[in-house]
Structures are given as C-alpha cells and as structure tokens.
Predict the 3D structure of the following.
Amino acid sequence: MSLSRGRPYLAIPGPSVMPDRVLAAMHRAAPNIYAGPLHEMTAEIRAGLKRVACTAAHVAIYIANGHGAWEAANANMFSAGDGALVALTGQFGIGWANSAERMGVTVTRLDFGRQAPADPARIAEALSADRAHRIRAVLVSHVDTASSVRNDIAAIRAAIDATGHPALLAVDAIASLGCDPLRMDDWGIDVLVAASQKGLMTPPGLGFVWFSERAREAGRGARLKTPYWDWEPRGFAQEYWQNFCGTAPTHHLFGLAEALKMLLDEEGLEAAWARHARLAEAVWAAFDAWGQGGDIVLNIADRAFRGHAVTAARIGGGGAGRLRSWCETEAGVTLGIGLGMAAPGETSYADFLRVAHMGHVNAHMTLGVLAVMEAGMRALGIDRGAGALDAAAAVCAR
Ligand SMILES: *Cc1c(COP(=O)(O)O)cnc(C)c1O
C-alpha cells in the first residue's frame, strides 16, 4: 500500500504546475502560421507580456529556456571584451556570469553569499572603480531560486544612478515574474529576462527578453549578436516569421495566451502577487514552528528579502534529503532539491530542500504540501516543533 497514488504534485521551482486550461488550449491541430488567428493571438501575447512586466519597453520572444534567454540578453548587450558586473546571491547569478564569460565578456563577480541579498553599496563601489566604463551592464537575479533570496532591484538602480556610471541594469526575473511584485519601468530596469515555465504556468520552451529604448540604443553595436538572437527583428517584426526567426512555437503560444488571460484578465496581477505573498507567509510560519523544536531553519532570515514563489530551507542531519524522498514515494509530492546549497567542500545537498509555491498554486495545494511534510517528519522521526500546520492555517485564515 502506498499513499502516493492519486494526482502527483510537483512542488519544485520550475517547471511549475500547469493549469488544465493551459494544457487543453495546447491540445489542437497545427494552425496556419501564414495568416489568421495565430497572428492576432501573438500580438495579444506581446501586449500581455508587457503588462506582466509593468513596462512599455520592447519584448523579444525566443524558443528557449532560461539559459537561452540569458544568452539572448548577453548577445544584445555585449561585444567580446566588454565588461559585466554580476551579483551572485545563490546559484543563478553564477550561471548567468558563466554564460557571459563563455561568450567572451569580461566578468567581474560580486559574491554576496547564499543567505543575503546583493548590497547596492558594493555594486556602486565596483562601478565607481570602473573609471573607463568598461562595464556595460550589471546582471542580477530578482529572486535567486536556489537561495530564495529576493534582491531589492529599485535600490540597486538608485545606487547605479548615484555613481553616474552608464551601465545598463539587466535583471533575471525567471523565478519572480507573475509571483513577486516587479515593475520594470518604475524600477528602471533596462533588460529583463524571464521564461515560460515558472510564474507563467506554461511548459518550458519560451524565453523572453524585454529591453528598454535605452538598452536598444546601447546594444546597437553589440557584436555578439547573431541573426537568431538579435532582439531587433523580434521586437519590431515587419513580417510574422520575424517574431520567432522562423517557425512560431505554435502550441506554446496557445498555452501562454491562456495563462496570460488567467493571470492578467481573470485574477489580476496584483491579486496574484498578494496570493503568492500570503502562501509564502504560510510556508514560513510552518517552518518557524518546526524550527522551534529541531534543526530546521529558513535559508533567508530577513523576511523582507525572501522571494514569494519559492522557499529554501535547511533540515539538518540529512533530514531534508530523507524528507524529500519520503514525500515523493509515500505521498506523491515532489519537493525541490537544495540547489547549490552544499557548503564548499561538501558534495551533498542532503540538508537542504526547497518548497515551491509558484504560479498555479492555491491554499489547498500549499497547505497540502506542508501537511505531507509534517507527516513525513513524523514518519522519519525528524525532531521539530509543534503547531506548524496550525500556524500555516492561521495565515491562510487571516
Ligand atoms: C529557473 C531559473 C533559471 C534557469 O532557467 P532554465 O529554464 O532552467 O534554463 C535561471 N534563473 C532563475 C532565477 C531561475 O529561477
């Protein structure tokens, strides 16, 4: 007998849960790509993507995952030998930095560890030291999905501006778009990167790069551009095929159109942000209670710097790894691994896990995950404080 039969639940931070409506919208015959409804739908998707990022900037859509979207952004910002300043606050800044470096960009890394946000003052200091203005862009994750830290993008912009340095601000919002408040234009973001499979509730396969007019101008001479990654024809397509530099990702577009309708027209972006904030708080409340009686602690101590779509936590003594496997095999719930969270020299992530509450997620799903975790800790004899589910329920009941 196993209690895992039933609909499996994936609580990892991407791919996230896909609404049945999104899947159903994709289940259809191949459409005409030369004329007709697909063209109108693409125009609506482009408008929706601007709404979800709170921007009037341009947007390019790529057939790519997040790693592809990083390269797209790099290709349009840099020539070989240009500088990039990258803030590391977990795992994903490392990935973006490596990608830029492999493309020939001279990367300066500022490491803020795995438990704290980027310090705007240190970014400003590094820019001030760059008197020759070799650094063309500052790259930073809004939410680093590995550490679950949320960086203060507006404060980073203000710090950059205070130095008078002309570097662009490029932000990875792959984990946060549609989940955490994010206002591209108000925050002065020049280049924003995201993908379809997290807050946008659509299968992996679409990457997005929004770019301000300032970034467009600054990037005109970027020599890493190739025909496929160049954002200009995609952002300003004269002919339909230019939107995707070839065949459109037809079925992903049907799915994304449905997801944007659900997010923007039915729920509303601000309501979705508030839902994520509340569910995150329920998860934090449970961990706080568990932590009262065991070696269990949230990775980011200051709640002001916690992302709302994913929570990284430590359950010591290998508890996190054992709990993950119990939840999957005994209860049908898959939790996220502790990506990049092993201490230097350690090879195991056994003490870390992540709980996603990202995208198409409601109270019953989140409370269900927490209840399954409680059951798993009981089954495994993991020491923990009492009252976690009460505390989470109280947050939802508020
Ligand atoms: C998921 C994620 C990525 C990587 O996206 P892939 O689609 O796996 O390439 C990059 N950055 C952040 C912040 C993410 O959450």
Notes: The pocket of pyridoxal-5'-phosphate is lined by residues 14, 65-67, 92, 141, 144-145, 172, 174-175, 195, 204 (CB under 6 Å).
